[in-house]
């Protein structure tokens, strides 16, 4: 898959990287990818396709959140969702995810309502930011998303996080959402995710981490002489 650096998304994505809304910091990703596969993606796609076919239950082969897995188009949808997550969060491996880890939304409007409700405070920050607030945030958001992916042609999916093996379960996380807008005709996926990171929890975690460091004392100097560089690196 190839990251698409689309002008309509650039300003929004830069803004959403870190938004201070008072009690928490919002961190967002708004990225578009081409579904054309090459290299490692193509190799992983073939492997996943075989695993999904052989490892799916009869029920999943006839019906799943991404469609009947007996059909190639449904398996491709699942693979695109997995590969998108792998690209955006390279420190995590999502290759073990399967159809049950995703959910198809009933329509665009439902996803829009959920996103809008989470971003009300963010809208206020946008309005007060010089050079950004000429138009309402949500209006800019959806017009830009529509320009990038053509919403009326999209299927919408969300990832059901297990909060343990992905970035959404971090200690300081208050809430999160993630949606995939998949346009089959354009062969393009737009991924939109936001996490609210508690300021208090983040500060406490940083404070705890700093207290856990061991600092050299006079006695440590002796150890340094005995163990050399290894002791210095450990400190």
Automatic annotation (TrEMBL):
<dbReference type="GO" id="GO:0000994">
    <property type="term" value="F:RNA polymerase III core binding"/>
</dbReference>
<keyword id="KW-0805">Transcription regulation</keyword>
<dbReference type="InterPro" id="IPR038564">
    <property type="entry name" value="Maf1_sf"/>
</dbReference>
<feature type="region of interest" description="Disordered">
    <location>
        <begin position="203"/>
        <end position="235"/>
    </location>
</feature>
<dbReference type="InterPro" id="IPR015257">
    <property type="entry name" value="Maf1"/>
</dbReference>
<feature type="compositionally biased region" description="Low complexity">
    <location>
        <begin position="208"/>
        <end position="217"/>
    </location>
</feature>
<dbReference type="Pfam" id="PF09174">
    <property type="entry name" value="Maf1"/>
</dbReference>
<keyword id="KW-0804">Transcription</keyword>
<keyword id="KW-0539">Nucleus</keyword>
<dbReference type="GO" id="GO:0016480">
    <property type="term" value="P:negative regulation of transcription by RNA polymerase III"/>
</dbReference>
<protein>
    <recommendedName>
        <fullName>Repressor of RNA polymerase III transcription</fullName>
    </recommendedName>
</protein>
<comment type="similarity">
    <text>Belongs to the MAF1 family.</text>
</comment>
<keyword id="KW-0678">Repressor</keyword>
<dbReference type="GO" id="GO:0005634">
    <property type="term" value="C:nucleus"/>
</dbReference>
């Amino acid at each position: 898959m190839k990251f698409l650096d689309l002008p309509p998304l650039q300003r929004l994505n830069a803004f959403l990287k870190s938004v201070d809304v008072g009690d928490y910091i919002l961190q967002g990703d708004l990225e578009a990818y081409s579904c054309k596969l090459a290299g490692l993606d193509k190799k992983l796609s073939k492997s996943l396709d075989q695993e999904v076919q052989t490892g799916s239950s009869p029920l999943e082969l006839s019906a799943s959140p991404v469609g009947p897995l007996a059909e190639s188009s449904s398996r491709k949808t699942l693979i695109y969702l997995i590969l998108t997550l792998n690209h955006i969060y390279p420190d995590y491996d999502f290759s073990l995810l399967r159809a049950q880890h995703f959910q198809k939304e009933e329509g665009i409007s439902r996803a829009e309502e959920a996103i809008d409700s989470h971003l009300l405070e963010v809208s206020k920050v946008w309005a007060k930011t010089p050079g950004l607030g000429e138009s309402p945030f949500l209006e800019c958001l959806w017009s830009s998303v529509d320009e990038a992916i053509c919403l009326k042609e999209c299927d919408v999916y969300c990832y059901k996080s297990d909060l343990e093996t992905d970035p959404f379960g971090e200690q300081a996380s208050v809430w999160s959402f993630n949606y995939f807008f998949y346009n089959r005709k354009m062969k393009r996926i737009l991924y939109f995710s936001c996490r609210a990171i508690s300021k208090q929890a983040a500060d406490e975690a940083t404070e705890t981490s700093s207290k856990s460091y061991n600092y050299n004392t006079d006695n440590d100097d002796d150890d340094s002489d005995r163990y050399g560089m290894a002791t210095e690196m450990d400190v």
